[in-house]
Amino acid sequence: MLKRVGLFILTNVLVIATISIIMQVFGIESYLSDTGINYFSLLVFCSIWGMAGSFISLALSKFMAKKAMGVKIIQPGAASGVEAELVEMVHRLAQTANLPKMPEVGIYESPEVNAFATGPSKSNSLVAVSSGLLNHMNRSEVEGVLGHEVAHIANGDMVTMTLLQGVINAFVMFLSRILAYAVSNFLRNDEGGISYALHFVFVIVFDIVFTLLGSIVVAAFSRYREFHADAGSAGFAGREKMIAALQKLKSYSERVDQNSAPAMNAFKIAGKSKWLAIFSTHPALEDRIKRLQGAM
Predict the structure, then answer these.
(1) Domain boundaries, position 264
(2) Number of folded domains that form the chain
(3) Stretches in the chain below the pLDDT threshold 50
(4) pLDDT value at position 279?
(5) Does 149 participate in catalysis according to the annotation?
(6) Contacts by 251-257 with C-beta closer than 8 Å and gap 24+?
(7) Structure confidence at residue 294 (pLDDT)
(8) Global confidence as pTM
(9) Which one of the listed residues 83, 112, 143, 149 is annotated catalytic?
């Protein structure tokens, strides 16, 4: 747990330092002054902070996943038994999906029955499965799961999610600061100036509100991409295998690894629904099974 916290802190420090350097290099100054808001500076400020953070996270995604989840990478030339079968299935599915380069394949120790795919591009990706999945699924079901993960890579879901999150982040920052300035301006002090402390408080409040609203959009697209990846797996591995895999996942849906890195949950094949379905990154497994059965 301490290792994961350390990686999280290190990543965020790297993101902040990188963006700060970019801001200095391009000479981007504060968007707020006593005379009002410089909307162009604000737009550039929000775009850099919103998009740069997302793309730095994407660039580090495979490395962070390996470290946070403790993924053991399988070396194709030295693999045998179950590991060799796993690599062979991923490579065959990747060829069917016309990926430009074979993904790395790995296993992480966890009692949960799950798998995920990540990486900054189709040519630089990772497919990892839990030890729990290998212990509780047969070969056909594993192939269905792997087909789903390869479909995520082939569809470019990691990049698309990054773009969407970056746009949402930039929009949230831009709108929050405009509204915070408007409210602060309305509540200006007796000397006619804006209270920067009050402005900062309103920025935080509006950031929280709009981030929650933005997360609904991100979660909706995440649910869509899960249906799309299920359909992709049905094409790559076979519809019956994907349905069987989802049915097996449903029977083990309560088996969740509490020590798993929360940041990886959206990239796994199965996820626990939150208290509100609109914030869930995964559709209900029942709905995913019905969607595939209805397409037969």
Answers:
(1) 2-294
(2) 1
(3) 1-2, 4-5, 258
(4) 84
(5) yes
(6) 252/112, 252/113, 252/132, 252/136, 253/285, 255/111, 255/112, 255/113, 255/132, 256/112, 257/110, 257/111, 257/112, 257/114, 257/130, 257/132
(7) 84
(8) 0.82
(9) 149
